[in-house]
Amino acid sequence: MNMKRFSFLLVAVIIVSGSVSAQVFKRQKHELSIFAGGGLSTLQYDLQTGKHKNGIGLQAGAGYAFFFQPRWGIRTGLEIEQFRANASLKNFSDSYDVKGATPAGNYTFSYTLDSYDETQQALYFNIPLMLQFQTGRTLKMYAAAGGKVCFPLKATARTKKHGLVTTGYFPEEGRTYDDLPQYGFGEYEYLKDKTGLDNLKLHFMLSAELGLKWKIIKNNDLYTGLFFDYGLSNTQSVNDKTFVQSPMVADKPNMSPFIESQVAGKPVTGEILPLAVGLKFRFTFLR
């Protein structure tokens, strides 16, 4: 084979290869997907009193990616993410003054709790924006990083209280009432409740993924990887409710969720930062 013929064949191979690569990239630069994942997914916060436990949550949604280069793309989408956490305390007591609540005048409301347990669940609607890098052919490695805007959809607190005892001390009478159920003073062995959380707000998260991208069939891939979401801003707007509220005229004392409450004039919780680490599976449709 002479040099001219070899050069001609080499140029032809390069042109054909480039054309095929361009067609493949053209076909695969848009990527639609659905995904689901789960793992540690919690509301992270410090407690003024009591213990905090992390929870397990899930996420799911649909995504779109545009690859402006074979290795580089921008990813966005819509997703739902769930966070869970638990707070508990034992042998807790507090008291505060209540003014002008009854005809008998001001009084000091006191309470003790043998134990208290609260499980929080928060559901967010997220819009992610991430930059993705990938390398390889049939089996690719990928990494993505960016952020999410997170809108609260629904949040609840399930509470269990054991051994709640409330009393009212009236200084004008010099008397403490501990068995006056019409005013909420007495013993309550077990209380269970489910309450909506009103004070969660929009927040921002740092997000990252790392894993493998498997070619399944011609137009479909499967991502398997680790994900990490970290809240950059406090998702709690205010902590301004009294934990155990003076009942005034009621059958039993009212209680506010831990993460919305104050004790001794201070919020029970500090900043609430969502945190999630786990496994994610993404199935793609190439167009």
Short description:
The protein is mainly beta and 287 residues long. It has a single domain, classed as Porin (Beta Barrel).
- Order of strands, widest sheet: 1-3-4-5-6-9-10-16
Rg over CA atoms, rounded to whole Å, is 29 Å
The level of helicity is under 10%
Number of domains: 1
CATH class category: Mainly Beta
Largest sheet: 8 strands, antiparallel, barrel
- Strand content range: over 45%
What is the general shape?
elongated
Mean pLDDT: 84
User: What's the N-to-C terminus distance?
Assistant: 42 Å
Q: Which structural category fits the helices and strands? A: mainly beta
CATH topology, which one? Porin
How many extended strands?
16
State the assembly state of the protein chains. Answer: single chain
CATH architecture term: Beta Barrel
The succession of helices and strands, N to C, reads HEEEEEEEEEEEEEEEE
**Low-pLDDT stretches:** 2-26
How many DSSP H or I helices? 1
Task: Considering the chains and any ligands shown, give keywords for the structure.
eight-stranded antiparallel barrel; Porin; 9% helix; mainly beta; three-stranded mixed beta sheet; 287 residues; disordered N terminus; 16 strands; 1 helix
Describe the protein's architecture and organization.
- The chain is mostly beta strands.
- The chain has a single domain (3-286), classed as Beta Barrel (Porin).
- 9% of the residues lie in helices and 67% in strands.
- It contains 1 helix and 16 strands.
- The strands form 3 sheets. Strands 1-3-4-5-6-9-10-16 form an 8-stranded antiparallel barrel.
- The protein starts with a helix and ends with a strand.
- Mean pLDDT is 84; it is low at 2-26.
